[in-house]
Amino acid sequence: MSFALLIVAAVSGQGIETPIVSEATDKVEVAYGALAEGRNHEAIASLTSAREASPSDPAALINLGTAYARVGKAEKARECFEAAARGERFMLQLADGSWVDSRRAARMALAALPQQGAFASR
Predict the structure, then answer these.
(1) Distance between CA 18 and CA 64 in Å, rounded?
(2) 3-state DSSP call for residue 26?
(3) What is the pTM of this model?
(4) Fewest Cβ atoms nearer than 10 Å: which of 14, 71, 120, 121?
(5) What is the phi/psi pair of residue 43, to 5°?
(6) Strand, coil or helix: 54
(7) Directed axis angle between helix 102-112 and helix 74-86, to 10°?
(8) How far apart are alpha carbons 26 and 112 in whole angstroms?
(9) Which residues pair with 91 in a beta bridge?
């Protein structure tokens, strides 16, 4: 599974049972554009800064982990994915348009890491 498939759209604030985007949905910076275009270092800078405002957002954590994985920082990626897997549950939209529980997306990202230790969310 490619890390590109796991880029998640920021659709936080939705209940896990309702994968429908509403206008009331909170938007969190998840660096989707930077990740989709392979600008991984830019994504890391953006997501690291955004974590100050929303440190436990699963979409941001998954995308940050993906960016770290892409630049060879597998342990940092693992930390991000594990934090997302333990965090709040939201429905997240993947880059392919499908919806998935944030904890499941984080576990998928963990499984996609190389044996020694990486993944993304839109």
Answers:
(1) 25
(2) coil
(3) 0.75
(4) 71
(5) -60, -40
(6) coil
(7) 160
(8) 28
(9) 101
**Tokens 């800078």, residue?**
45
Measure the CA–CA gap between 1 and 58, rounded to whole angstroms.
Answer: 19
The CA distance from 77 to 71, in Å, is: 10
Neighbours of 9 (CB within 10 A): 19
The contacts of residue 79 (CB under 8 Å, 6+ apart) are 65
pLDDT value for 95: 84
Q: Sheet holding 91-94: strands in order across?
A: 8-9, 91-94, 99-101
Least confident of 18-27, 39-48, 62-71: 18-27
Is the CB of residue 67 less than 8 Å from the CB of residue 40? yes
